[in-house]
Structure formats: C-alpha cells, structure tokens
Amino acid sequence: MSDTKPKIVGRHKRVAFMDTDTTGTTPKYERMTNFTSMTNGKNPKEYSRQYVDKETEDTDVVGYAPSTDYSFDRYTNTPVHEKIAKIHDGELTGSDALVDILTVDLFDGDETAGYVARKRTYAVIPDTDGDGTDALVYSGSFKSKSDIEVVKVTVSADGKTATVKTA
C-alpha cells in the first residue's frame, strides 16, 4: 500500500532557471540563486456584468497578466545576476530587456522521466537597487511577454542547470 497522506510542498521545491546564453544558439538554463523573494502573481483580467434577471453579478476570467516580483542579493560571477544587472543598470529596453525563465516543480516528476516545468519569456522591469547596508540588493518584476509552455526538464546532478527534454 502506498503512502497517500498529503505532504506540504516546501518552497525550495519550486526553482527557477534563466537562459543565460549570450550567443542565441543553445539555451543554457542556469539556476536563479540568492533570490530573497520571487513571488508569482497571476493578475487575472475579469469581465463582470449584472444581468437584469439576477440579483448578483457574474464574473469570468478572460485573461491573465502574469508577473513575478523579485529581489536578490547581487553576487559576482553569477550569470543570472549579471544578465539582470546589465538590463537594470544599462536601462535596456525592448528585446534587450527580455529573458527566458523555466520554473521547475521538483515535486512533480523525477530525474528519469523529467520534472514538470513552465517556460515563458519575460520582460525585466527593474525597480530599485542599493537597498540594504550589507549587500547590494536589486529588485523588480518579470512581466510575461509570451504564452506559457509546459515542458519536461532534467536537472543536473548538482542542481545548477536544467535542460528541456525533447520529444
């Protein structure tokens, strides 16, 4: 008999990887480390109306504007931090401010079959830097630029990189 008792999912079991490839040829998804906050907001778009034959209003979700608020302690020799800092410090715009992120659920799948992940392109929306006295802290938001794509990924043994499985 298998253990079917529900278990809480630790926050550390949902991890993110950013494509840090600078050549644009082969994605290199590297673990997004040293983030002190990475909160996902769905921001649903609603269509609400009141029908004359009903006492209550009807509401439907007709779209989403997903965003992820982030904050991280800036470390050197960290490709993810370098990529975001380049956008932030250089005040880059348009396609120069886009990143691809894989959000991987390490609680959904395994090393052999792969883990369930969501892949999406985001615009980096910088907010502040320099907060704090102990570390240089960057904060901002990743706002969706593409539709979500559900994929299967493998994660390296050291947990530092992820690879999208091909069919």
Produce a short descriptive summary.
This protein has about 170 residues and is mainly beta. Helix content is about 5%, strand content about 55%.
Computed structural class: mainly beta
* Total count of strands: 11
Helix content: under 10%
Number of helices: 1
Main sheet attributes: strand count, strand direction, barrel closure: 6 strands, antiparallel, barrel
Biggest sheet, strands in spatial order? 1-2-11-10-8-7
Distance between the termini: 33 Å
Rounded mean pLDDT is: 95
Question: How many structural domains in the coordinates?
Answer: 1
**What is the strand content?**
over 45%
Bulk shape: globular
This entry's quaternary arrangement is: single chain
Order of helices and strands: EEEEEEHEEEEE
Rg estimate, integer Å: 19 Å
Taking pLDDT < 50 over at least 5 consecutive residues as the criterion, the unreliable ranges are none
Q: What can you tell me about this protein's structure?
A:
There is one protein chain. This protein has 167 residues and is mainly β. It has one domain (11-40, 72-164). Helices cover 7% and strands 53% of the residues. Strand 8 and strand 9 (137-144) form a beta hairpin. The radius of gyration is 19 Å and the shape is globular.
